[in-house]
Design goal:
mainly beta; 10-stranded antiparallel sheet; 8-stranded antiparallel sheet; about 45% strand
Length: about 260
Amino acid sequence: MPRCEVSCWKLLVWMLVIGCAVPSATSQVPKGEILPHQRAIVLFNGKDLSSFDSFLTGRGLNSDPEHVFQVEHGVIHVSGKEMGYLITRQSFHNFYLRAEFKWGEGTYGSREGKARDSGILYNIQGDQKVWPRSLEFQIMEGGTGDFWMTDGAALTGKDGHRVTGPAGGASKIDRFGKGLSQNVVGFRDPVGEVEKPHGQWNVLELVTQGQDVKQYVNGKLVNEGTDPSPTEGKILFQSEGAEVYFRNMKVYPLK
């Protein structure tokens, strides 16, 4: 075989070997930390919002004339101009959730000029409102990965302290290694930032199994709690005064 063909063949083999060594994009969490799970339930198919109901303050269920939630180029664009959420029509218990988000530009209403804010609420119980009883995977500039417990929900933090959200309000457990925060648009934690730079996609992963709840940002364990209440329910993605995008939203029931 001519030398040039041999070299090309070796290069092709090398590329195939390297390609096989690339880890799956399904999870950024270290192998072994995600529990065995079933096939994915796709929450967003890249085309429409058929897996969700919408809720907006002052408008109620499935009334979105200003298109706060819309599909653009295969991703969900949340304008943030009204308070509300997309909520799954299905409830979940013991699951692994994976979703990606990135920030847009706008901030609105009571959040104008303040740190961009959104979140994923899960184990939702009770009435449709802003905000229902649930646990929250906080998404916020400088605070992504915090736990929030809303409207009577509760969780015991890694330090053994149990936190319960007051009726009609919320209480939080900061993520691991979090520095002092400033409620200003564009803020980044100077000590323990876990988000990628503004405009880049971030991977959020949540595992709730029995008495244990873990939250990961870009492959890093950022918060953990035990004895959650409630333990099951629907999942929602917030519109909370900031423009944000979501994609690749999937739930994997645990075996």
